[in-house]
Amino acid sequence: MAKEAESYGILGKRTPIGWIVSTVFLAALAVTALFPFFYMVSISLMKTFEMFEIPVRLWPRVPQFSNYIHALTAYPFGRFFLNSSIESIGVLCGRLLIASLAGYGFSRMKFPGRNQLFLLMIATMMIPATITLVPAYIMLTSLHWVDTYLALTVPLLNYPWGVFFIRQYMMTLPENLEEAARIDGANEFAIFSKVFLPLSKPVLLVVGLLSFAGTWTSLLWELIVTRSLMMRTVSVGVSMFIYQYGADYTFQMAAATVATIPVLLVFFFGQRYFMKGITLAGVFK
Considering the entire predicted model, what is its pTM? Predict the structure, then answer.
């Protein structure tokens, strides 16, 4: 019975037909996922009239690499990249600190109302971010933070998703590590910083990757809290190629391609830890 099951791939042994079907299916998914990025790069190298040709042109006749020079010099993109880097790295560090402390508290510390508070925090993730835009902007105006780096970073430090992931991951760590540390005389902060934090590197990298990508590509908040050109971020700079009566799509796609590179590099170098952290943090307790 077992051998018969194996021949059909039930127990994990792949049949030739199953391998071909799975390979074709995964290849189709890969093409579907990569095609928008390919077409973005293609448009960035086209002349404007080539975008509107019928049938649709997938690659320019002669690549216009000058589009990149024009796009990156039309606005101060060097300053935009600096602003986005300060915002993304500042938010990343703040979120990791706050989320790791909160995750440790919800997972390892016992206090009245712990589970209720955790569920309340989970409930806040269902509140649309647009609802809090006006109150947050009024608060920043009263603090005179508008058009500053404080406005770009401090309001974004609240990250329930990060707390959730870190809490779920720390719940999977064995209790005997904590007990051994207490026997050795370690206090609560020492247990957190010297035992649980080093063991939580995979999920911390996941939270860091998601935080960096989300902050780097964010547009609405940065458009609201910045006023001067020199405080704009990369995502806002890319949107500047859309005007009232038209848009420079080729230049916009060129700027968008360059703006995507940091996120791609971060995910490329951290993908192994990203998949490991997602798998281990998916256990709900």
Answer: 0.85
Map out the domains of the chain as residue ranges.
2-52, 68-280
- Please give the radius of gyration of the chain, using alpha carbons only, rounded to the nearest integer: 24
Q: Residue 188 and residue 108: Cα distance in Å, rounded?
A: 10
| Domain 68-280, architecture per CATH | Orthogonal Bundle (1.10)
CA 250 to chain centre: 26
**Distance of alpha carbon 156 from alpha carbon 277, whole angstroms:** 23
| DSSP letter string, 178-212 | HHHHHHTT--HHHHIIIIIHHHTHHHHHHHHHHHH
The residues of the chain scoring below 50 in pLDDT are 1-11, 283-285
Number of Cα atoms under 13 Å in the Cβ half of residue 209: 22
Q: Is 254 exposed, middle or buried (0-12, 13-18, 19+ CB in 10 A)?
A: buried
Report phi then psi at 276, rounded to 5: -65, -45
Side chain identity at residue 61, one-letter code: R
**Amino acid at site 245:** Y
Q: Is 65:246 a contact under the CB 8 Å cutoff?
A: no
Q: Would you state the structure tokens that stand for residue 95, as one six-digit string?
A: 């979120």
The CA–CA distances, whole Å, from 222 to 89, 172, 217, 227 equal 15, 37, 10, 9
Mention every residue, 6+ apart, whose C-beta is less than 8 A from residue 284.
Answer: 168
Distances (CA, A) of 52 to 34, 46, 112, 176: 22, 10, 63, 65
Collapse the DSSP code of 62 into the 3-class scheme (helix H, G, I; strand E, B; otherwise coil) and give the result: coil
State pLDDT tens for residues 212-269: 999 999 999 999 999 999 999 999 999 999 886 778 899 999 999 999 999 999 888 8
CA atoms within 13 A on the CB side of 109: 18
Closest CA to 231 of 85, 79, 90: 79
Phi (first) and psi of residue 219, to 5 degrees: -125, -50
